[in-house]
Amino acid sequence: MRKGGRFLRLISLVTAAAALVMLAAALYRGRSTVRTDAVLAVTVTESVQVTGYFIRDERLLTAPCSVVLPLLREGEKVSAGERMAIGTEQSDLQAAAEELSDLRQRADALEQALRTPKEACAARIRGLLRQLAAGPPAAAGDTALLQALILRASLEDAEASRLLSDLRQQAEELTASLSGIPLIAPQAGWFSSCADGYESILTPKDIPLLKDPSLLPAAPVPKQAWGRLILSGTWYLAAMLPPEQLPEAGAEVTMTLSDGASFSMRVFRAERESGLLVLSCGSGLEKIAPLRSAFCTLTVSSREGLQFPAAALCTEESGQTFVYVAEGALARRKQVTVLQCGEDGCIAAAEERGTDSLCAGDAVLTGNDLYDGKVVYP
């Protein structure tokens, strides 16, 4: 009996040891096949890139002079009766006027470039190159801005600032050396030295009948024209979009130019049949005064989301989507509403479902045979 009892106890110990080994192996396999990743908070935007056309209440400026030398910067506000430029019949001053215009344009562009962080210069340079290659007429200062951004990227801040001071000083000295007939502002507004023939074509009163702005021909520009005066601080941007991408009337849209300038605008008109979109804005006119068209990005919606690896997403036969997250040593199922999936993973809507809500910072699980309550030891 003693030998038999010892034998049975030995068998029991061996069986228990084998069971423990099998349990440990199962737990190890479960642990080794489960991966954890942190859920990230992200902002999801819906945007589209378009060529937009600027619409403003404008007055063409003319002068009975062969040479006009503007004294104001692009977009500078002017009062009625204020001197805007110097006019002369002396043809020998034409070269001086062109030199002064070039100095001011280079100085303005360099000043704008200096407001750009060095690490952002490459992106802005690429954006300007795309705009110049897109086809619509580029703004007069685009080439100068491109050169200024290249200088900004290659020079130290102090050296670029000294160059800007030198350009401003040269412009002031050249202005002081010139004389002629003062050209006075007929009324208050914002000045631009550009005149393109659209001053009487793309106007706010024409917006109700506007179709495709890119098809409108410009009016002839008089030889005496030397600029325009923008009479209202409210301006518009017209563009053509696929009808399904048009935002609703009254919706807020963010418009961003290739140079990084951003404007909060409101949908003024949206034509579903033609795809015409007209946006309105009441600020920032000085930044777009010389522009008639521009390649820009329209952000039509923005919402918060949660990003996680696509492999962590599970789908039921009913179409319901969910993920498993680690809570202590257990896997817990959490329902999600997927906004989009791509190379960077999936993005789900940030929703409030109490303790069942997926949250930023959760450890989402990827693995085989996961179920709610499974021991995973992440």
Would you spell out the secondary-structure blueprint of this structure?
Blueprint: H1 2-32, E1 35-38, E2 40-55, E3 58-62, E4 67-70, E5 77-78, E6 83-88, H2 94-114, H3 118-134, H4 142-154, H5 157-176, E7 181-184, E8 189-192, E9 225-230, E10 235-240, E11 252-257, E12 262-270, E13 276-281, H6 285-288, E14 293-308, E15 314-315, E16 321-327, E17 330-335, E18 338-342, E19 345-349, E20 363-366
Antiparallel strand pairs: 1-20, 2-10, 2-14, 3-9, 4-6, 5-8, 6-7, 8-9, 10-13, 11-12, 11-14, 12-13, 14-19, 15-16, 16-17, 16-20, 18-19
Helix pairs in contact: 2-4, 2-5, 3-4
Descriptive overview:
With 378 residues, the protein is an alpha+beta fold. The protein folds into 2 domains: 47-303, no CATH class; 309-378, conserved putative lor/sdh protein from methanococcus maripaludis s2 fold (Beta Barrel). It is 28% helix and 33% strand. The protein has helices at 2-32, 94-114, 118-134, 142-154, 157-176, 285-288; strands at 35-38, 40-55, 58-62, 67-70, 77-78, 83-88, 181-184, 189-192, 225-230, 235-240, 252-257, 262-270, 276-281, 293-308, 314-315, 321-327, 330-335, 338-342, 345-349, 363-366. The protein has a 6-stranded antiparallel beta barrel. Strands 1, 15, 16, 17 and 20 form a 5-stranded antiparallel beta sheet that branches. Helix 2 packs across helix 4 (142-154). It is elongated and about 125 Å long. It starts with a helix and ends in a 12-residue tail after the last strand. The model has no long low-confidence stretch (mean pLDDT 85).
As residue ranges, the low-confidence spans are: none
Largest beta-sheet details: 6 strands, antiparallel, barrel
How far is the N terminus from the C terminus? 49 Å
Strand content: 25-35%
Report the helical percentage.
25-40%
- Counted up, domains total 2
Q: Which secondary-structure class do the elements indicate?
A: alpha+beta
| Succession of helices and strands | HEEEEEEHHHHEEEEEEEHEEEEEEE
Across the major sheet, the strand order is: 2-10-13-12-11-14
Rough outline: elongated
- Based on CA atoms alone, the radius of gyration comes out at 33 Å
Mean pLDDT across all amino acids? 85
**DSSP E strands, number:** 20
Number of helices: 6
